[in-house]
Amino acid sequence: MKVVILGGGFAGIHLAKALVKQDNVEVHLVDKNNYNFFPPLLYQVSTAFIESYNISYPFRRMFQNKKNFIFHMGTVLNINTQEHYIVTTHERIDYDKVVLAMGCDTNYFGNETLAREAMPMKSIHDAINLRNHLLLMLEEASRLPEADIQPYTQIVIAGGGPTGVEIAGMLAEMQREIIPKDYSEKICKHIKIYLVDMDSVLLRAMSEKAGKEAFEVLSKLGIQIKLNVAVKNYENNKVYFSDNEVIESHTLIWASGVRAIDVPGIPASSIAKNGRIYVNEYNNVLGLEDVYCLGDQCLMQGDPDYEKGHPQLAQVAIQQGNLLAQNLRHLSKNQPLEPFRYVNKGSMAIIAKYKAVVDLPKGFFKGFFAWLVWLFIHLIPIAGFRNKVKLFFSWSWSFLTNDPTLRLIIRPRKKYFPEEQPPHQ
Ligand SMILES: Cc1cc2nc3c(=O)[nH]c(=O)nc-3n(C[C@H](O)[C@H](O)[C@H](O)COP(=O)(O)OP(=O)(O)OC[C@H]3O[C@@H](n4cnc5c(N)ncnc54)[C@H](O)[C@@H]3O)c2cc1C
What we know:
32% helix, FAD/NAD(P)-binding domain, binds flavin-adenine dinucleotide, five-stranded parallel beta sheet, alpha/beta
């Protein structure tokens, strides 16, 4: 059986790792990048706290020596469900079973100016881009007279969910501990960080206690929190808010919404709100026998505890990937399939150095112990033993010295020299 997995994130990788153990399966993995990465730590890359390679791992290395595994680098363009093939930017791949696991992209809710000007936080590219931008703004500010500095040192974060809260806390730490080491007092005193959300609380998806704790800790760190306020527009480096305030800033970080990746060829009747694809409790796309969808990209009907669908979290994707591997084996042996039931193991967010919040199914805790638990839990799933050790070392160094990565501004060249032309051009 030839199984083609589209997307090597949490869901795709767990499915692929389980499927390569089955002798009768040929596993093809398609991804637009040649590496898997760990989104929960992107904010630490974008604030120059750790390096991008601490949280990324190449697929070919991950599946070295697996004879029934084939990797295809390419962006998925469409799917033909009648003739059983998919098309990427480079090739056509036929399948017996296809699994969509391409997750989500940033949602700007149709605002083209925001899409062009705001800085997303969804990928390694986004995180490196933001890190370079933040450092460049500080360089720019250091060349200017004091009266002109503020637009370069004011940062607006749209979205008070875990990503917005975590990046706000990290930027506040940077402002306090790291930037004063490299830049003059003139720059430091003009840094101002705004965290904005349309909702009346932070961390809406977590408990009330977690939201309150985040609000208190971030306020103490000097973050300007604006709740019940939306970003309406962003033009000419001015952020326009729904309460009519306007803030001059070269940096609007968009941590506000997601939309599932569109796959032309999936019938419109199978697509729900926010682009998510309807699946039954076996992750089978409704109405399409050999097409499955996992993780953030799907919206499952049939789990009694999650009638409106599951939250878009890593654990949901992992558990669905593992179960689908088991169910595909059962299917090939004509055995009964097991329906998916999400086991909620809790959720957590880091707010600042030594401060985190943890919601468990039966309780809540916060503070230093929660922070330690957060670090431990986020170290375990990092791909590759070498990466785990490096990340542990990076964290220890960064937290103890308050002087993390070297904060180099390294940007790709826009043009290739002729001898470096990529082969497909
Ligand atoms: C900044 C951030 C922080 C987060 N923090 C947490 C957290 O603390 N805890 C938590 O539980 N969840 C967190 N999440 C959510 C979590 O990352 C997702 O729920 C999880 O990644 C979903 O897994 P997935 O496999 O469905 O998709 P993903 O992990 O997003 O994987 C999708 C894969 O598809 C590939 N892909 C996408 N489009 C294409 C295409 N057109 N062609 C080919 N390949 C494609 C991508 O390169 C990627 O490898 C966070 C997300 C972000 C962005």
